[in-house]
Amino acid sequence: MSGVATNRETLLGCLSVRRWADDVLAGQPYADREALLAAADTAARELTDEELDQALAAHPRIGERGGAQSQREQSGVDPAAGDTAGRLAAGNAAYEQRFGRVFLIRAAGRDAEEILGELDRRLRNDDRAERAETVDNLRQIALLRLEATL
Predict the structure, then answer these.
(1) What distance in Å separates the CA atoms of residue 100 and residue 62, rounded to the nearest whole number?
(2) How many domains does the chain have?
(3) What pLDDT is attached to residue 79?
């Protein structure tokens, strides 16, 4: 049995953090896809501040379509519907002013109202709680993206 493996480019397309990719690559080959995903999950749980900044630099704001992956993930968000674009822009601006970084959420499977509700809720977080939620959402996104490549 040859096992399951991936490559650096694929991993960095899932989560743009070199240490994370190196940690996942170091365990190859994995017995199966579940083992690969478990290793990726573990490696994504503890991002440094620098790694968090690296990862966020690769993500567009919610409502602003980036590359193909982001467009698929944000497919439930139609910025042209009603006042969605204005509400997203205002929420993104408030978040960036409050926390000094782009608002990030696993958008896959969520519609605009759910995302806006989460944005409003997370604006009430303290810095520590919000950092933890951001890291967790990055982890969720990375795992969804990695799973889609397997």
Answers:
(1) 16
(2) 1
(3) 56
